[in-house]
Amino acid sequence: MSTRIADYGMLADGSSAALVDRRGSIDWMCVPRFDSPALFARLLDPDAGHWSITPTGRFDVTRRYLPGTLVIETTFTTATGAAHLRDALAVSEGQRGHELGMSPPHELLREVEGLRGEVEFDVDLVPRPEYGLVRPLLRLTDGGARTFGGPNQIAVRSPVPLEAGDACARARLRVAAGQRLGFSLVWAPPEVAPPEPTAPERVTARITDTVEAWRSWEGEHDIYQGPHHDLVLLSSRVLKGLTYRPTGAIVASPTTSLPETVGGERNWDYRYAWIRDASLTLEALYHGSCPDEAADFVSFMTSSAGGSAGADSSLQIMYGVGGEHDLSERELPHLRGWLDSRPVRVGNAAWAQTQLDVYGELLNALHLYRERLGELHPEIQRFAAELADTAARRWTKPDVGMWEMRGTPRHHLSSKVLCWVALDRAVKLAPRLGRHARTGAWAAERDRIRAAVLERGWSERRRAYTQAFDSDELDAAALLMPLYGFLPATDERMYATIEAIAQELTEDGLVLRYRVTGDRSIDGLMGKEGTFALCSFWLASTLAQAGQPDRAKALFDRVAGFANDLGLLAEEIDPRSGELFGNFPQAFSHIGLINAAAAIDHAYGALPPPDADGSP
Predict the structure, then answer these.
(1) GH15-like domain location, by residue (predicted)?
(2) What is the pLDDT of residues 359-414, one digit of tens each?
(3) In angstroms, what CA-CA distances link 209 with 15, 32, 197, 280?
(4) 63 with 565: CB under 8 angstroms?
(5) Which parts of the chain sit beneath pLDDT 70?
(6) Which residues contact 245 (CB under 8 A, 6 or more apart)?
(7) Contact status, residue 138 vs residue 167, Cβ threshold 8 Å
(8) 76: how many CB neighbours lie within 10 A of its CB?
(9) Which domains, from first to last, does the chain contain?
């Protein structure tokens, strides 16, 4: 049986990520980028590669992130002793503060330290590049091993002799109290000189340096002073770990194809930069850590859009972390999928969808960071104006909505509301947009959108704002209306919508995005899905804004309580079993946590009043 999703922890270095489970097995690692073909993919198939350092026999486990870092310390206790295993994706030596993640060495560091008695470990290195398709030539070397051939070079240093197997290397070791044994694995492309991993005797120092690099970044960005400080700080660190530092792109998750339900087909590749997710990440970081990443992201978006914001076609909703436009989706039939949940997909066909919400999310981020961005470059002035002009021109058109439904386009309420946000924020940014500002026209179209939403978005039969114009289906995205400042949560109809979602769009108190029937009638997909952590946090935020902080806090505490022992959340939660589902860790879920914490702390008076615009 596959490892539970909640049993994994994320390592990150500003360029890529790896997942390590409670047994000490690296089961997912993509290098040199988040969206590169996986070197270890046991997460999705038992034969697709891993690197485990696991005690022999029975053992108990506790683990934590070393404070202020994404370095994991796992403590194994056996009948004969206890030992730490520390895992880190290294950053460049000596990096501190905002430099964190620039030009990482693509090196995985692992250290075993004996605490008491003696503990025996099995080391099992099974590299399988290209999602398990490649069984590399592996040659033992003095002090380690190397692979040869194919699109990767991997070199390993080991403090104990390795034995070669079938495209793998193994060892058994014993560690006594006070003893430290360091391992390292470094990746390089085939066209460069063979890489040199860190020597075993230097692994401790390199891990320590990586720890200090993370702590220096957090020390410069620790601004949240509310009661939920620790939770917000951890989630901010996770979001930082999902940032591709070379370009400023922010990925939705470091994984692909972890299913929304076991055996279902709702398995997507989230290792890309969605405008929506990344913009909301910036908003969450604004509360949680006030990052310098805003300018990097704006630069990434303006360059990635490539001048297309004002074209007749919609702005592309997502890009590769290097700004790539074509993210064509394909299946990997050789992989069984997590718990046999096929298909496994790479790429994401949503890149070609029309989603009108992106204009509002991006302009809201520009407005939020207007002071940090300073005087806007003429290129950004033009880009912002083109976003507003396009929202004004296209808001009357149907789209697939922010949930990326693969059915017939509709007039989704959330898309109309976010087009209103685009024009509202453009009007507020107008003094900074120079000759590109069209304040009067934007304000007039903004008011037309508002009137249409209030009239056609309300269902008298349902007594709620609904999923699409002239429909009766509930959708958690209606909660964005107060969060973006479209309506106050205390408005009679808005509050009725909040209560309708709380009562009718929940399972065991947690919120669904929308109801699905199991066939393709709603969103073009088969099967059902679980409750969304993000949507549950949205409900907590709106309850706080509606003057019910006690209800909000109870819901917040319950959702946050489903995080794993490292504090990580996936996309979805099964409230009955407590299991996490979907890609992991999920930026959206940690975004929701930060913003809900801020809303609740504001409601209790523990933080200054929020910006009048609201923030999701």
Answers:
(1) 226-597
(2) 999 899 888 888 777 788 888 899 899 999 999 999 999 999 988 777 789 999 99
(3) 18, 21, 16, 31
(4) yes
(5) 1-2, 288-292, 306-314, 517-527, 609-616
(6) 14, 15, 100, 101, 102, 104, 296
(7) yes
(8) 25
(9) 5-216 (2.70.98.10), 222-603 (1.50.10.10)
Rounded to 5 degrees, what are φ and ψ at 611? -55, 140
Q: How far is CA 48 from CA 122, 126, 319, in A?
A: 19, 8, 27
Dist CA 180 CA 184 (whole Å): 13
- What are the structure tokens assigned to 244, written together? 């591709």
Residue 483: name the closest of 403, 418, 396, 551 by CA: 418
CA distances from 419 to 412, 424, 449 (A): 11, 9, 8
User: How many angstroms separate the CA atoms of 584 and 596, rounded?
Assistant: 20
Q: Alpha-carbon distance 24 to 50, whole Å?
A: 10
pTM over 0.70: yes
**Token digits of residue 388:** 């507003």
Element housing 65 (H / E):
strand 60-65
CA distances for 159 relative to 29, 199, 339, angstroms: 22, 8, 35
End-to-end CA distance of the chain: 38
Q: Which helix (H) or strand (E) holds 9?
A: strand 9-12
For 10, 134, 319, 602, the CA distances from 591, given in Å and listed in that order, are 17, 37, 20, 17
368 neighbors 485 (Cβ within 8 angstroms): no
Both structure tokens of 524: 């073009």
Q: Tell me the CA distances in angstroms from 464 to 97, 435, 469, one per residue in order.
A: 47, 41, 12
Residue 462 structure tokens: 């349902």
CA distances from 410 to 35, 354, 356, 516, 523 (A): 31, 11, 11, 16, 11
Q: Among all chains, which residue has been given the structure tokens 């995205």?
A: 477
